[in-house]
Amino acid sequence: MNSSTPIALITGASRGLGKSAALKLAGHGTDVILTYLHSRSEADAVVAQISSAGRRAVALPLDVADSGSFTAFAGQVRAALKTHWQRERFNFLVNNAGIGIYASFAETTAAQFDELVNIHFKGAFFLTQALLPLIADGGRIVNLSSGLARFALPGYAAYAAMKGAMEVLTRYMAKELGPRGIAVNIVAPGAIETDFGAGAVRDNAQLNAGIASQTALGRVGLPDDIGGVIASLLSPENGWINGQRIEVSGGIFL
């Protein structure tokens, strides 16, 4: 095993944007540790695709809503690094895992709010904290935001607020991890055709067309539009980008 091969850990990478990022990174010569919540078979399929591309991959279960599990998860990552790579550190962390909840501000419940906090903000905060000893100096972290943190569409108040919090956290992480040479950025996708939010953007033709009409490039996004940007941010050429919000939306609501 080439000890110089970079390793990325991507949460929620059995499907959607995380899967695209994993495959794009593998195509650029990066090995992958990917996490999944429900479907081991989907995760194994991604591992197989990465293996067929000549890279090494491992799938680990993780519930990012359960911050109490992160110490044990870090131990599993440490064991996987030793077993599969004979290494003690990985290079890139992509905090991708998430869910969508649609509810107006007036009707959002405390349970919905807490679920979004636990997954999108608390989860990313404390998972990164737990994994810091395993991230190599000079490594990089990519967090995920949303275009909804810049523009407001009714029904996403709580979700967008969590993403706004992640954007602030990203700047603080970049500042505090700078002495270790770790760059931290956040990618903000626009509307993407995935099963996120029950697949509304993908499956609702009227919604899809409406978003496309408000986008300068005239269509909604695809997973590979985002996965490619994440892989690019983690390339050697982009190591000087730090503390930045990169919106990847095709120019929506300009």
Summarize it.
The chain is an alpha/beta fold and 254 residues long. Helix content is 43%, strand content 17%. A seven-stranded parallel sheet has the order 3-2-1-4-5-6-7, sandwiched between helices.
Structure description:
Strand 2, helix 2 (40-52) and strand 3 form a beta-alpha-beta unit. The chain is of the alpha/beta class and 254 residues long. The protein has helices at 16-27, 40-52, 70-85, 110-131, 157-177, 200-203, 205-213, 223-233, and strands spanning 7-10, 31-36, 57-61, 90-95, 135-144, 183-189, 245-248. The protein is globular, with a radius of gyration of 17 Å. The mean pLDDT is 94. The longest helix is centred in the middle third of the chain and has 22 residues, at 110-131. Helix 1 packs across helix 8 and helix 4 (110-131) packs parallel to helix 5. The chain has a single domain, classed as NAD(P)-binding Rossmann-like Domain (Rossmann fold). It contains eight helices and seven strands; from the N terminus they run βαβαβαβαβαβαααβ. It is 43% helix and 17% strand. A seven-stranded parallel beta sheet has the order 3-2-1-4-5-6-7, with helices on both faces.
